[in-house]
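#struct-help
A.M.: can someone run this one for me? Single chain, 236 residues.
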Amino acid sequence: MLAYAFRVEPYWLEVRTVRLTAAPSLRILHITDLHYKGDRAYLQRVVARVNATPADLLCFTGDIVEDPAFLAEALAGLSQIRKPMYGVRGNHDALDSEALAAVTACFRGSGGRWLMDEWVSVLAGRLRILGSTGRRQAIVSAPATAGGRSLLLVHDPSVVQHLHGVRFDLILAGHTHGSQVRLPGAGPLLDLPLVGTYDRGLFRTPAGLLHVNPGIGTYLVPVRFGCRPEITLIEM
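D.P.: on it. Structure tokens below:
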């Protein structure tokens, strides 16, 4: 079990489909919490699976790296993604001006954007994306632009508990890693942020449907059990 948890499941990448409507017109890939630490082969597999999955765009909800020394290598891998990428920072994305410029250039180079509390209209107006740094006031006070479905990208899913009077068609978040270890019949084992509230999967909230992705990488302990790394294809 230990060999499986440390050597197999952390790299056993899953592509999971979440269909929100019977006749979807938008296909969105959601990844999060890359926590890249130098494993090029694994990142290449992630990129290959993303490129092989038909979708209109890709959304990334934070934590590219923990150590800035790995940022350039991580961005070199992400730059191979052949879909527009829209992303927001996570709690580990402490980017100085030079690093922020590199991340911004990578996402723009894909045809997408790195979003810092700003709206963008995509797919000929069919979708409006608000990329949030997590400041609740910035989300609540964001202008209500007309037309299209609305999508909120935020790293920490607990933000939805404080979004009174605002609603989105879909909210994407990460941060929890799904706990990384989930025992059959017992649920989450590791005490990671928000486990037991919005730990992973789809939730109905007053602010709209919330999807929490369990992440691509790991944090603190390089282990996963009952919680495979995931690329989520959301059809809406």
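A.M.: thanks! The longest strand covers residues 14-19.
D.P.: also worth noting: The radius of gyration is 17 Å.
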